[in-house]
Design brief:
The chain is of the alpha+beta class and 496 residues long. It has 17 helices and 13 strands. Strands 1, 4, 5, 6, 7 and 8 form a six-stranded mixed sheet that branches. Strand 4 and strand 5 form a beta hairpin. The longest helix is centred in the C-terminal third of the chain and has 24 residues. It starts with 16 loop residues before the first helix and ends with a helix. It comes from Hymenobacter saemangeumensis.
Length: 496
């Protein structure tokens, strides 16, 4: 007989939410894993002692963590999704017939809480990872990736020159940031744009709608902290830079921060190292090796890591060369000798346009003018001059490390540790795009994403089962047992 299910939509008189969520459920285990009560003390000073009760801070943090775990970027979609899930309602502490907070309440509460509260939650979860043995601390892999900002590239505006006054009639309009780049950078940018407009092609003068944008001359009024950046193989967009440090033992995130996307990775390493060292020391761990790609290669970073007794496994990249062809260096005299036997002594230090310090070496004017090799060595100059970074010794030690077999192993270890973590965060934890604005908001979102990732690591961790101890018999007793078994086998065979 064919069955047909009838749905009457009856009112259930006896229903308990805890009975509908199985013990192995993700959110039930997560509710039992973390003690969330410390958040009340962390946020107590942010509320008044009078007025209407606000959204429970524990409920807020649980709700935004669900958004990271469910890969939901929108607060509106997050609230709608949670209302349909019994396990999430049990995790949040809400009844089936109880209304969830509005999405605007979640957004305002996120703006109310400072980044320090989110940092405290990250430290709390990280400490549990250390207690479970998921973090070794001695080797950390560092990398960064751009994250799309909550702003469109079509809405960028041109910055106003420094000292320009606003018209009287537009007092309610947002104030445009002043151009703060150095004059030589502005001249270089103007020359570059003029050259590209004069060239034929899609960005030339034939297309009037073509816009040549730069962070030195343009900004986003929607999110002034977002920066124009481009990644090879992808379109130009307004982004933030997510910088991560991942422990190589089990892949637990040990530090995360939001940086401006228009600067080099090497400039963000000192701040990242400070936060990472603070967290590791708080958990009685010591950093010994730091793994990073060539984007973090910087003489100041090499010197900083050596001063903190941390071995930098960062490939040397750029214009640095361990030796200058045709010139021999005398370390004791701090001077070079050319192929003609002329000495180029050290004369002075100098600061380059990018702010780095270099040492200048040059030969005497008379030596170069009378040298037979002048036509090939310095054909258009009066004398030969060499520049050398003040961090040459640290550069050379890093270059030697990367040539060793261990250096190749550390490079593969970094690729297999931190790069998969970024893939998971971008595609499975809602970090493909920011749903907030400002650098502080981006930092909070990245912290929540890292907390959700570490919580998943905690839930998946299974301590190794203790192996049963095997009792080893003494050799003589073992031999007797073997003879007895053999004799019984022979007797049984003869009887049959």
């Amino acid at each position: 007989m064919q069955g047909k299910k009838a749905f009457l939509d009856k009112e259930v008189t006896r229903f308990r939410l805890s009975e509908r969520v199985p013990p192995h459920n993700l959110y039930r285990r997560l509710a039992e894993l973390v003690d969330w009560s410390f958040l009340y003390e962390e946020t107590r000073a942010l509320y008044s002692h009078t007025g209407q009760p606000s959204l429970d801070p524990v409920v807020f943090f649980k709700l935004v963590l669900v958004g990271r775990l469910e890969n939901l970027v929108s607060d509106r979609r997050l609230v709608e999704h949670c209302a349909l899930r019994l396990d999430i309602l049990f995790f949040l502490g809400y009844e089936v017939n109880e209304e969830l907070p509005w999405h605007s309440t979640v957004s305002r509460t996120r703006q109310l809480f400072p980044a320090a509260v989110f940092e405290r939650l990250f430290d709390h979860v990280f400490a549990q990872c250390v207690a479970r043995g998921l973090v070794a601390g001695d080797t950390q892999a560092v990398d960064s990736a751009p994250v799309k900002a909550n702003a469109s590239l079509d809405s960028v505006c041109e910055k106003q020159p420094a000292g320009a006054r606003r018209p009287f009639l537009v007092t309610d309009a947002p104030v445009a940031p002043a151009v703060t780049a150095p004059a030589y950078q502005l001249r270089r940018e103007a020359a570059r744009q003029a050259k590209r407009r004069s060239e034929p092609g899609p960005l030339g003068a034939q297309h009037e709608k073509a816009r040549l944008l730069s962070n030195k001359t343009h900004y986003s009024p929607t999110d002034p902290d977002a920066r124009i950046s481009i990644k090879p193989g992808k379109a130009r967009a307004l982004n933030y830079l997510c910088s991560l440090a991942v422990d190589t033992a089990r892949g637990v995130i040990s530090h995360v921060q939001a940086d401006y996307a228009d600067s080099r990775d090497s400039l963000h390493l000192p701040r990242l190292l400070t936060g990472l060292q603070r967290r590791l020391r708080a958990n009685e761990l010591r950093l010994r090796d730091l793994l990073a790609d060539a984007g973090y290669a910087n003489g100041a970073n090499y010197a900083l890591l050596e001063a903190q007794q941390v071995t930098a496994w960062i490939p040397v990249f750029g214009q640095y060369k361990p030796e200058i062809a045709g010139f021999a260096y005398n370390r004791s005299a701090d001077a070079y000798t050319c192929a003609a036997g002329k000495v180029l002594p050290f004369h002075r230090h100098e600061v380059t346009t990018d702010g780095s310090w270099v040492k200048l070496y040059w030969a005497a004017y008379s030596d170069c003018q009378q040298c037979p090799l002048k036509s090939t060595c310095v054909p258009g100059a009066k004398r030969k001059q060499l520049t050398k970074t003040i961090y040459d010794a640290a550069y050379y030690r890093a270059w030697q490390r990367q040539q060793t077999r261990r250096g190749h192993r550390q490079r593969r270890l970094r690729q297999s540790t931190v790069e998969p973590v970024f893939g998971h965060l971008l595609h499975h934890y809602g970090l493909r795009r920011m749903n907030v604005r400002s650098q502080a908001g981006a930092h909070k979102t990245m912290l929540l994403t890292a907390v959700a990732y570490n919580l998943k690591k905690l839930l998946k961790h299974r301590p190794q089962q203790q192996l049963s101890l095997a009792i080893a018999l003494p050799k003589p007793l073992l031999a007797v047992n073997r003879r007895v078994r053999h004799a019984s086998y022979q007797s049984g065979y003869q009887l049959t």
